[in-house]
Amino acid sequence: MINAVLNSDDQLAHAAVFRWLLTKNKTNVILQSKSPFIEFFLVQEINAGRGQKYFDLLWRFYEKSGNYDKAARLLSKLAENDNWKMGLTQRCAYLSHAILCAQSCKDSTVTTNIDELRDRLDVANVQMRIKDALGCSASASARNQEFVRKLDGPILSLQELLLQYVVPFKLHKIKLSLLHCAGMYVEKHIFETWEDIIQDEFTTAQDEGTLCEQLSNTIGELFSVYRDTKYFPREFVIRRILEIGSGGVIGESVQQQRHILPPSFYPLLCKKINLSNCEFLRTASDEFRAGGDAWWTHNSRGQEYITKVVLKMARTVVRELENMPTAHSRRSTARDCLTHILPFIRRSCDVSASLSLQNLGTELTALQNRLSEFSN
Where in or outside the cell is it found (predicted)? Predict the structure, then answer.
């Protein structure tokens, strides 16, 4: 009976069958039919205010019939509408599908908008992260829940997200994501954001073990996202972790340092950010030789800390050299390492060096001799 009606030219009969099929949740039967009246019927129902399901059926019809341009445009329109009843997850799904349809489309006016669709999806994903962060916060209040409700609606602009949510709630990692999404690169702002990210890990960690785990995971996670971009300033990150981790320079907003990073943390950090131990030594040596920070140049505790870290890393390099297959590789790495540890040996031999620093210098000198053997 249904097939007989759908094979007829009676438009009203088609509409009646479509309505009956919808009451039976048999939308696939409508989409699979060859009826020439599907689009007209769905548009009429939409214009009559019948509800969201008719929009969904219409874009699915467009997609199934190969009208990818119409499907992409409708999906984009649905994602951007001001209907507060539509959640953010659904909007992201619409944008994702709009991108797929646009990629399948031959209409250049649609394909040229793919990047714009991707940009909007990126913004929506940032908004989703903000919503999740506020909703999962241990201190989530009724006020926070109201913000979550607002975020679970129309897609906002990056500026609105930054000023209304990211900055007030100090969502530093999301701020970095937002700056990257917007293509906003100002070195000062990136450094400030990274400073906040690192400080957060130190102030929220309950103990040394938790700090090492949280900090390495955070740095590793962000490195995996921004590794090939200017949004991961590796040397700045290493310098600040050394400074804050030593109990030294901790920033204007922090009153005291709660935990000290053990030297054993740094080989783990290097693995997380694909940095060789020798390259780490170069950064530490540059930081120490630059003399821009009085913590390293005039404070015995700071000097002892960074020398302990260098000693740990140099020992790690020696173990690596012992397992290197070729003499050429060993020589090159050993010579670089010797260059990087030399400033620390010289400082430990200074007459003003503390006894602890002198003892560390003695151990470094022993490693220097071992490295010299590899360098020949």
Answer: Nucleus
Q: What is the token pair recorded at 282?
A: 């170069």
CATH number at residue 70: 1.25.40.440
Asked whether residue 33 is assigned to any structural domain, the reply reads yes
- Tell me which of 75, 93, 119 is where a domain ends: 119
CA 158, CA 29: separation in Å to the nearest integer? 42
Model pLDDT, residue 31: 82
Closest CA to 283 of 298, 269, 262: 269
Total domains, the chain? 2
In a domain, 287, yes or no: no
Domain span at 87: 2-119
Residue 38: which pLDDT band, with cuts at 50, 70 and 90?
confident
Tell me the C-alpha to C-alpha distance, in Å, between residue 8 and each of 2, 21, 61: 10, 17, 20
* DSSP conformation letters of 34-89: --TTHHHHHHHHHHTT--HHHHHHHHHHHHHTT-HHHHHHHHHHHHH---TTS-HH
Contact 251, 206 (CB under 8 A): no
